[in-house]
Amino acid sequence: MLLTIPIVNKISNNKLRTVHWGTRAKITHEYIDEILKQKILFRPTTAVDLIFTFYFKNIPLDNLNCSGMCKAIEDGLVEAGVLKDDGPKFVSSVTLISKVSKTTPRIEIEIK
């Protein structure tokens, strides 16, 4: 299954760890809201692999600097009922890819 959502707030882990907790919560909920808008009916019955591909308009973040946004999206998948939990029993692996797309910045989330 492939989901596509906008990059609602481009923020690296370096910046995310220094912002006020209220700002972090707001950013997390922006991504959760994007997942909830998708109205996903897919419900995997076994552990999944998540592949996050970030397409940034200009300068891509380092792969691991995208992990804070991945965590917010993963929380959204749990809140939307797509995943029962985001622990290792339900998510086998996570892959992060960072690229450039000058015309269509976005995040693609592949659930395998």
Order of helices and strands: EHHEHEE
- Separation of termini? 7 Å
> Which percent band covers the strand fraction?
25-35%
Q: Biggest β-sheet, characterized?
A: 4 strands, mixed
Set down the secondary structure blueprint.
Blueprint lengths: L1 E4 L7 H4 L4 H17 L10 E9 L10 H13 L11 E10 L5 E6 L1
Helix pairs in contact: 2-3
Describe it:
There is one protein chain. The chain has 112 residues and is an alpha+beta fold. It has one domain: 60s Ribosomal Protein L30, Chain: A (2-Layer Sandwich), CATH 3.30.1330. The chain is built from 3 helices and 4 strands; from the N terminus they run E-H-H-E-H-E-E. The protein has a 4-stranded mixed sheet with strand order 1-4-2-3, with no helix packed on it. It starts with a strand and ends with a strand.
